[in-house]
UniProtKB/TrEMBL annotation:
It is a multi-pass membrane protein. Keywords: Membrane, Transmembrane, Transmembrane helix. InterPro entries: Tetraspanin/Peripherin. It is found in: Membrane. This is TSN13 protein. The chain crosses the membrane at residues 12-40, 46-68, 75-100, 167-187. It holds the Pfam family Tetraspanin. One of its GO terms (cellular component) is membrane. PANTHER family: TETRASPANIN, TETRASPANIN-13.
Amino acid sequence: MVCGGFACSKNCLCALNLLYTLVSLLLIGIAAWGIGFGLISSFRVVGVVIAVGIFLFLIALVGLIGAVKHHQVLLFFYMIILLLVFIVQFSVSCACLALNKEQQSQLLEVGWNNTNSARTDIERNLNCCGFRVFDLNETCSSDCFRSRQCQPCAPIIEEYSGMVLRFVGGIGLFFSFTEILGVWLTYRYRNQKDPRANPSAFL
């Protein structure tokens, strides 16, 4: 059977949704691992990661059930949701790749000022205190604070932020193209007839 046939479209769509399921479980597992080992104490960050993982898992589940049963309604909603996710993810990925160093620095400073728990994690893991200036009057959870010889966190964070943004933008861009592939596969699969189905049945 050629790859443009019904069985091939079904198998490709199932494989794509199994990939999304694995990624979603990986996201949830990483968040749980970070909490378990004390690497992340910010429940807001963990909550966002787990919420994204659960959302992706539900989308993959809808796509998988729709592909296995050739359910027109489920496939339609799956296609629409995947298209919306593609638009958002593609835009965010392009924004990550387009940020210059000055914009990155401003975003990092805003994030630093608005999150206390994430700030504590950064200071402890990077062994630094303060963002731009090390202030002896402020409390700090890093080991270097005991010796009163800490460097500010901004230079260390900015050194890695560009690499992280490029990595996140590249991964997001890659997955956005898998999503548009999923939309195309779903559209084609919905319009194909199941050779084993009853010809008089609509769904």
